[in-house]
Amino acid sequence: MFESIPYLWQYIAQTTGIFIVAALITLAGFLVFKKVHSRRVTAAFVIVFFGASMIFFAVHGLPNMFAYPFFLKTYGPSEGPILPLKNVWAFITNFDSFEKVADISRNPADIRAPLNRSKPANVEIEMTAKEVIAEMAPGVTFNYWTFDGTVPGPFLRVREGDTVTLTLHNDPTSLHHHSIDLHAVTGPGGGAAATIVAPGESKTITFKALNPGIFVYHCAHPNVASHMAHGMYGLILVEPKEGLPPVDHEFYVMQGEFYSAGALGRTGLQLFDAEAMLEGKPQYVVFNGRTGALAENMNTKVGETVRLYVGNGGVNLISSFHVIGEIFDKVFREGDLVSAPAQSVQTTLVPAGGATAVEFRADYPGNYILVDHALSRLDRGAWGVLHVTGEADPAVFKGEIQMGGGH
Questions:
Q1: pLDDT 10s digits, 256-281
Q2: Is 131 a residue whose pLDDT tops 90?
Q3: How far is CA 328 from CA 7, 20, 265, 362, in A?
Q4: Among 82, 122, 348, 374, which residue is least crowded by beta carbons within 10 Å?
Q5: Calpha distance 9→274 (Å, rounded)
Q6: Among 111, 86, 136, which Cα is nearest to 244's?
Q7: pLDDT over 80 (residue 382)
Q8: Banded model confidence at residue 75, pLDDT cuts 50, 70, 90
Q9: How far is C-alpha 252 from the chain's CA centre?
Q10: Whether the predicted pLDDT of 406 surpasses 60
């Protein structure tokens, strides 16, 4: 499953390629000069070339960070999406010690039940940042950075007015610092400023859940986009004081983008492509961490009501969320649980770093496909299936159903 890792060696090739090219140019120049010039001129060429190289590195220093592609330049308030060379070396030399996760995806049905309480409470939450290896698609592996070992991280559920104590651990096997920014938190960095954890370290924050809504949380250690594009995001639901109307099923869906140097479908361990991320051109756009993650585990029956909590981990694309063959009875746009929901909506926008909730009643049996209706993304992995069983009502729909029917 993880034996084929040709892209692992790109970490070495990219950092040494400049020196190899320099050596080849020097050799070519030496051979040319040797034929047409004296030994003295040839020796002078070699000395001048390496002298110029020594001056360059003396002024600019040897590289201490790795970027793919080489010499990436950005202008954000912190370091761009580049990695310390010592971390790259540690990844290469300790690859076998990384946990190999059989399934990186968070089960969409793995969601805490409604709280059903009328008073605020003290809530304790513990989470662990961990870097692992897992498959994006059969034979295609990524170095994921996670909360609690899955993408997305756990679905957090509290009530408006609760006092929440959250402890973030960073697994000792991690190579990078991490933190957590919860969009539900009022405070510096949404909590990130107080939760910067080195490998093996833990930090604790306490906050009051002031505002009801559906909120994204994510790692906010610089480079923030790079951490999120490795899978570090999830949702926290702050239930309003009066609670939410009951439904028969709730599911947890989160869209994310992954940027690989290898083309779509290229097997082996994929190198993170920072330039593709900066240009907003992901190779993979998926629900719940990998291709095919939502093919199972979403089941309901005719007559039952469904609520989908839908988040967008970004880091670049707006999701046009749609369920083929259904109309949303209610849409809590942008995670707003205070205003009256929109009704009878076909497709709803979920911004990068945002969330929504949609509700509908299952009226007819069949397989209903979840998509980002920017439909080329379906081919990059953004799809899922809601399975509805029960008796067909010809007054609702009548026709011969064929495999592959849909948009």
A1: 999 998 999 999 999 899 999 999 99
A2: yes
A3: 43, 58, 33, 10
A4: 122
A5: 17
A6: 111
A7: yes
A8: confident
A9: 15
A10: no
* Cis omega (within 30 of 0) for bond into 222: no
d(CA 62, CA 338): 55
How far apart, in whole angstroms, are the C-alpha atoms of residue 242 and residue 212?
A: 10
Helices 10-36 + 39-60 axis angle, to 10: 150
Answer positive or negative: Cα dihedral of 145, 151, 152, 153: negative
The distance of Cα 323 from the centroid of its chain, to the nearest Å, equals 22
d(CA 254, CA 369): 15
**What torsion, rounded to 10 degrees, do the Cα atoms 355, 361, 363, 367 define?**
30
* The three-state (H, E, C) secondary structure of the chain, written as one string: CCCCCHHHHHHHHHHHHHHHHHHHHHHHHHHHHHHHCCHHHHHHHHHHHHHHHHHHHHHHCCCCEECCCCCCCCCCCCCCCCEEHHHHHHHHHCHHHCCEECCCECCCCCCCCCCCCCCCCEEEEEEEEEEEEEEEECCEEEEEEEECCEECCCCEEEECCCEEEEEEEECCCCCCCECCEECCCCCHHHHHHHCCECCCCEEEEEEECCCCEEEEEECCCCCHHHHHCCCCEEEEEEECCCCCCCCCEEEEEEEEEECECCCCCCCEECCECHHHHHHCCCCEEEECCCCCCECCCCEEECCCEEEEEEEECCCCCCEEEEECCCCEEEEEHHHCCCCCCEEEECEEEECCCCEEEEEEECCCCEEEEEEECCHHHHHHCCEEEEEEECCCCCCCCCCCCCCCCCC
Taken as a whole, the chain contains a residue count of 407
Say how far apart CA 201 and CA 228 lie, in whole Å: 20
How far CA 177 is from CA of 57, 79, 370, in Å, comes to 29, 14, 34
Under a CB-based contact definition with an 8 Å cutoff, are residues 81 and 278 in contact? yes
Chain-centroid distance of CA 150 in Å reads 10
Paired tokens of 92? 């290469």
CA distance 264 to 270: 10
Cα 157 to the center of its chain, rounded Å? 21
User: Which whole-number Å values give the CA distances from 359 to 122, 125, 350, in the listed order?
Assistant: 29, 28, 15
- The label of the residue with tokens 């030994």 reads 39
